[in-house]
Amino acid sequence: MLQSLKIENIAVIEKAEIEFKKGFNVLTGETGAGKSIIIDSLCAALGERTSRDLIRTGANSAKVTAVFEDISADVKETAEKMGVDCTDGTLIISRVINSDGRNICKINGSPATVGMLKTIGEATVNIHGQHDSQALLNPDKHIAFIDGVAENGILKSDYKNCFSELVKIKRTLDAVYTDEDSKAARLDYLDYQINELENSALYVGEKEELTKKKKLFLNAKNIKKAFDKSYLLLCDENGSGICDLLNNCKDTLNAVSEYSEEAEKLSETIENIYAAANDLTAEIRNACDNFSYNEEELSAVDERLDLIFRITSKYGGTEQSALEALERMRKEKQSIIQNEHNAAELEQKLGQLSDELKNKAAALTESRKRASRYFENRVTDELSFLDMPYVKFVVKILPAAYSSKGADDIEFLISANPGEEPKPLAKIASGGELSRIMLAIKNVISAKDDIDTLIFDEIDSGVSGRAAQKIALKLKEVSEGRQVICITHLAQIAAVADRHLKISKSVSNSMTYTKVDSLNFEQRKEELARIMGGLEITQLQLENAHEMLINAGIYWD
Which of 110, 228, 437, 473 is surrounded by the most beta carbons within 10 Å? Predict the structure, then answer.
């Protein structure tokens, strides 16, 4: 269950830490106080899409931290698959939203992605917002409710895999049977491109090699001049070259070497240098003799570079991309040719998959029909309790074209009064009826899952009087054995809660601040009286609030 929620710098909430309990928790407060922002903050922590516009004015970032305790085995398993240790039964989820759009997410202190938050959030909390009731008005959404009750995940997965394979083969066959002229034109174009690339004989790094060679050729005169000058410096014809000078130096020292050991050593050193200089002279002479260049070579390099530029410009910009394009074209050509040979085999496979798909769709439909009968009875019972005793709730299932969801069209119909034929919800259901129908559906679906925390954001929309009291009793019943958190504007619902939290706001220094207080018995009386009353709270309203709390089994703290 959700043990606490810490919110920092989100909208009108500068800082708030809210503690929840097992059982029935309600949040009340004036319109605009920030009740729905609390739900939005929790949604952000659970990986729902959010915006940096949520960040409080003047702040650089916002942060939400949700702490769950005594998590279910399913949540533990989900966390373990992500590499998160939850052996102590505690789950701490945090998300920082920065003004630059970056998100920093963590699960039990380990870095996580928004997708990971969403996955674990779906296993932990079921949130019903005001927009969910509107989903009832869209028949396309109804199939998901039935599948949730049918628990037909394996059937759906098998069917979807078969459907995807069939679509893939059908597309392949469509390509095989495309207009022959178009296919022939495509093959001709592929041949042209393949020949162009193969004839170019590109290889990775060639452009760099040729560019270096071109620079060499463009500087050929300077290179030749440097070789000649270096040779003359080492071996000048007039005997003033380095080699001649070293030889003279060696002879001079040799003349006195028999009298001086130091002169002898220096003479030997110079002799080695002289030998090395002679070798170097020979290498420079050899380099000079072997260095050759003509305008035709430069022209050939320019032509090759131009070809490389034209080819790479057409096929991705680099030699590597051009070679990868060549490989793709070869495969496409081979695929077209191969598919023509495999058409008969593909037709046979398509027939087999069509039969499989038909059987899998039938099994999926049957699972939905069984679930629908159960769903109709349970929802009708729930609605009867919720002060809609004459309602007739019908799940209409009709055959449909095969799609990724199956071969069924599912729509919820309702007859609110005796003698009326069931009609689509969108045509006859009022706002209050939609709220009760959604609550009934949520109760039926929640009985099929192990999610410990249910959150209802103004489930009482459009409801009052006796119906409101019935919703309150139903929410209280649902909270037995799990946690229910509800935002409400109705005193009947707030009165039966195990924990009552009040959201209020104030203005200081031109900034709006929201705070959350846990109410004791007397404070609950005042808040219930405020909800029921007008501009001023009367003694009679306080007495009515007192009676409501006592009747709900709520006594002094």
Answer: 437
